[in-house]
Amino acid sequence: MEWKKGNTFGTVAFTSYGFFWLTLVGIVSLPKTGLMAPAGEGSMVAFLIMWGIFTAILFVGTLKLTRALQFIFGSLTLLFILLGLGDATGNETIKHLAGWEGIICGASAMYAAAAQILNEIYGREVLPLG
Question: Residue ranges per domain, the chain?
């Protein structure tokens, strides 16, 4: 409901990443059902790198926002790049590094969500967002 607050950044981010997950589920699941052909070789690499570029653009937007959001979007950009490189090269080390990076990114997003909730509820800074 970020659009109701006039938060264009939040609206774009939540809507876009919601569609990312729906699309990813479709790309992975639909070929298994026979409803579509599997994606071509290299298409997942292109998909992930495209999302990395989009996320990098959003990261630039966070430079006027909190340090917490900067970290989330910076680490998410790195995550998409690592995932794309891992798929492009087949390098297991890069894939494992991407997994750890994803855990760090997800944990930082959970921290920021907790901070926003607790800071609003208590009317003061309980957890800093920077």
Answer: 1-36, 39-130
